[in-house]
Amino acid sequence: MKKTTKLLLGTAAMTLALTSGAFAQDVSRENTVIFDLDRTIADPENFNWMTDGTGIRRMHGAHQTMWEPLFILNYNTGELDPWLALEANSDEGGAVWTIALREGVTWSDGEAFDADDVVFTVNMALENEELTAREVATLRGQVASVEALDSHTVQFTLNAPNPRFAVENFGVRIFGSFLIMPEHVWSAAEDPATFTFFPPIGTGPYVYESSASNRAIWDRADSWWGAETGFMDMPEPERVIFLESGGEESRAQLMIAGDLDAAQNLSVGTFEAIQAQNPDAMAWYSDYPYAVADPCARQMEINTTVAPWDNANMRRAVSMIIDRTQIVNIAAEGATTASSTMFAQYGSMSPFIDAVVEAGHGLSPTADVEGAQALLEAEGWTRDGDYYTRDGETLSVEIHVNSASTEYTRTIDMIVEQLQRAGIDARSVPVENGVFWGEVLPFGAFTMSYSWLSCGSVNEPWASMGRYTVADVVPVGERSPGFNNTSRWDGEAAEAYSAIVDEMETMALGDPAIPGMVAEAYQYLDAEMPFVPLVQAFKLMPFATTYWEGWPSADNYYNHPFFHWNSGHQIIHNLTRAE
Amino acid sequence: MSDPTNAAAPETAAPDMAGLTKRQLKRMKRFDNPWNNPKLIWGVSLLLGIVALGIFGRLFWDTDLVFTGAVMPSQAPVGFENLRGQVGLASSPLGTDVAGKDLLALLIVGAPNSLYVGVLASLIGMSLGIFLGFTAGYTGGRVDDVIRVSSDVMITIPPLLILVVVQASFGDITLTMMAVLIAAFVWQSPTRLIRAQVLSMRESGYVQMARLSGASDRHIMFREMLPNLVPYLFGSFIANVTTAIVTAVGLEVLGLGPQRVPTLGRVIYDAIDSAALTRDMWWWWGFPTVLLMVMFIGLLLINLGLDEVSNPRLRRL
Amino acid sequence: MARYLANRLFTLFLTVFIAATLIWIIPRLSPVNPIDAMLGRMASGGGTIENSGAIMEQLMERFGFNDPWYVQYFLYIKNTLTFDFGLSTNSFPTPVAQMIGGALPWTIGLMMVALIITFIIGNLLGALMVWEHTPRPWKAVIPAMMVFTSMPPILSGLLLMYVFSSTLPWFPLNGAYGINVEPEWSLSFIGSVIHHGVLPAMSIVVVTFGFWALGMRGLMITVQGEDYTVLAKAKGLKKRYILYKYMIRNAILPQITAFALKIGMLVAGQVLVERIFAYPGMGKLLYDAILTQDYPVIQGVSFVIILMTALAVFLVDLIYPLIDPRIRLGG
Q: Considering only CB atoms, which chain C residues are within 8 Å of A40?
């Protein structure tokens, strides 16, 4: 027995001796910034972003440190901050766009970045249908041809006028942008769809160091075009690491231990617990709601082809029964705010939101159950015990909800309770993520469902509003094009709405007539309610100031805090070492 | 089961009779009735306690409090403080979770549900395993081949794969369906092990003896061989109940269980998903875990007790 | 002997073939079309998807989902038999073999260590529960220790993490090796791997040894009454000698079968433990693949599991007659 003990102790001592060596870092913790990655890197040695539909192949640092966008949309001002490009302008009609590139930009291997790279990458996207990343598909749908006017000017001819062309494709509007690839590397690829682009290069201040399924490491390059041309100083962190964390509990522990500088979404209670143990932890707001809104405001989609919900008054009654404040308090633990319109409530969106609210189409944060019940009774329903009935039929509804997150199920549980108390026999139907997004939503196989399909607008109203026009109506059982108008909202009001929205589509951004048109179109949405806006989406992404300062927040609003987006460059450039 | 008791008891108990203390004698007396076994009684009481919690809890406590937003969220048990310094009230004596569900109500509804899934899954799985294992081992030949290959095939198929497909096809699944699904993954091991045991027992002295004396196959299988396997089978049954409960928890943690039915696993899942450990909400994961442990101890004691009943050598004086 | 071997070999091939066919069929029984699900994941990222119809067609064509089922099936069987699992649909164009290659060593390392520790501890404790000469305190402590068996592994993992990583900073919170350590055959790398593996392995050990102990206990009770044990006692052999050479040796036989089955299953990994520790194993790979309808990865991972299990079973069948002479060959 003693022998065994000795052996065990010996092994333990050896292990510790060995491991102490393992932590001798070549870059000290003080010079490293560690970001959270909320998923596994399935293919660590593949950097072909153009075949990756959902963008997971970019968010482990590739498009935050190595590949730079042409512009970055500022969520506060609604302006496009220039990055690799200087400016983008369209002709009168909005169908021909000219983008001026910055001079002096170089790839990390020393080659110059110029209009040829842009033309090459865009042509590759246009010619190869197998490249299926979202940004590639968007660009392919919009661009007819591209040419270099000179070494730093590129001209795009579009299939149709589009005033949002630059922001939609090159501006990091939501998550990513169309990234320009080095022609001198990619031109050697036989088939762009199977090219892995390994090792990768970019124009950014960091170069690829190594990657595994649970982390990617990026090291600061010796030189960067931005510092050389005076665009910006070299970023301070010498090393950037994206580290996979394993769920909320593990993430919280890493944050407390100081092993993460920036974490992905957490719940309020967890954040408060982290703060209690690590006072360096901070969030977007220093108090409730702590979290920042993400662009996809939550809503309840109603299938307008299913009786009795094909009646607009019935849908409005549902909207009136919903107590948004209760959803905020219970399902979101106070981390969000009630939606007053379909839009995400950013500074850049306020002209449109204000116009809708002023016209009297804003939603109330609290419920009006009596008003709703009056509507139901006017439609011939009478309360019989717990529930409303008509012709012996009980008023009931099944609400499909994605079971992948407690945010979704909790919100729908709350709504089910509210509908039940008001006399509607509601029931939630939780379904698996793949079924929900693959079968339920696109094919209209639901009566009501919890989603965010009006997502899109962040600096102009059309991206969201354009998703509910009659052009995208298909019968139940057919795939909704682009997940648009999954409510299958049709009829006179919908047509009147579509007419206004279609007109808006080609108007220049910032046209003073737009807010008025938004309000005018919105009256139909408000009256018909093909979907019920609920609350703002909330992302509580905590940062730690232990090693780094300069994180984005409501008081330091240089941009939103979504560090897994292509705009992560801005955050890294703003970091300064904590003293 | 009473046969071996009578046969073995005098042998082991008699020689030591002389040097017993009073206390031991008193214990001895209790063994006159082997069923009057303290472990067995304790074990059964613990399990009955869980069932009683389910039955009487419903009478004395409002089980509608299991719904989202029923009570104040994130409250500590009565007399304790939560992170925000609020002291728990008697209205939710065991505290509440972050979605405003009452923990006492969750336990009242959830504990019997978990026990049900565990026992049902284990019962189905073990019965199937015993039946197929005996049949294969004793009959041999083609039957054996078919059973062996199909159990081998079923051992290799990853359970997750089937569960995800079932859930995608049927949407929400019920507790019973979940038990059946879990049972589909626990019968293979007993089948194989019992088959192996039967094969080796077939050659053992007493079976050969019985065969020579012209006993029927059924007699040999069920009167001679099965009793010898009982301690092992019961041990596996208990282990399987626990495995099934834990598997159910695991599936729920992956979002593959029944969604609307409260079970202990579901409560623990919600707690973990909301970082209850970091939030110091020990009541949220602690109470359901304690109940799982109580169930396990109950089953374990029954196991130990039953073995003592059937096998007097195990009784401690 | 030769006939027995041939028989078992045939069973091995039959098992693998049937199982491989099943894992091709099962994912296709799901109502979700993988490309629809992929578009769904794109849509859930926000905003509309332009050209969704064209993308759909492209992807269906690329992954061969437009081919008739028998073409897909025969291609699958042909490729699988040559260990070519194709390219992942979700991580296109990464070869599935490469993804498995990245995860398999970690899973085998972690799970094998955990399984061996569990097997030894569990069986020893199970035997001690029955042995009449076990010291009193142990008899009381062992059943109490088994209480952990009722805990879900994710909870044991989190509790261990909470105690030995957060409160006492002895072990790292996540990963399979240090962030700044390069995977290579160096002492520091191996040390780092061991250091990172302790908590995940422990969280599996504490919740599973009880199962082994329970099974062993049942087997020991049976063995205790066997003639050879009684005879050995009557001969006056040493107590420990009887315990090891007569009781455990005979009782452990069925446990070895169970061990072999577990070797196969361990490849499937422990999804939840892998998840909380962000451990790069097979469990997570398979789980993610199932959730994203990544057929080639599902098939590849499952096939490895099938092969491992079938081989383990095959070996047990071969070894069993050698260690348990009571079995006649040819049965």
A: 278, 280, 284-285, 288
